[in-house]
Amino acid sequence: xxIDWAQVTALRDQVGADDMDEVIDLFIEEVEAVTNRLxxxxxxxxLEHDLHFLKSCALNLGFADFxxxxxxxxxxxRQGHADQVDITLMLHSYEVSKQRFLxxxxxxxxxACKNP
Length: 116
Fold this sequence. Notes:
Blueprint: H1 5-15, H2 17-41, H3 44-60, H4 64-78, H5 87-108
Helix pairs in contact: 1-2, 2-3, 2-5, 3-4, 4-5
């Protein structure tokens, strides 16, 4: 499951539908700051921390596949195998997840119709 829409819906219910777009924008901004750094100059010394941050953000917004890849990479970095982390795969997962999320979010998060 690429996107955990139940998690996304729960987050929307928690923050409110009116604030959800702002939460999404902030998530993308913060995640892209880290993914851009990883894309251009990943550092073994900070990789565990960066992947922990990305994993947490991904879990909050329901990016399930991306979160799992970050979790595996975080564990590898913690065990001294930062050089074996497939950053390219992680970044690809993020881009595909983001594209799907943004293309589906409006209809997936649409309020349920209420019968009078």
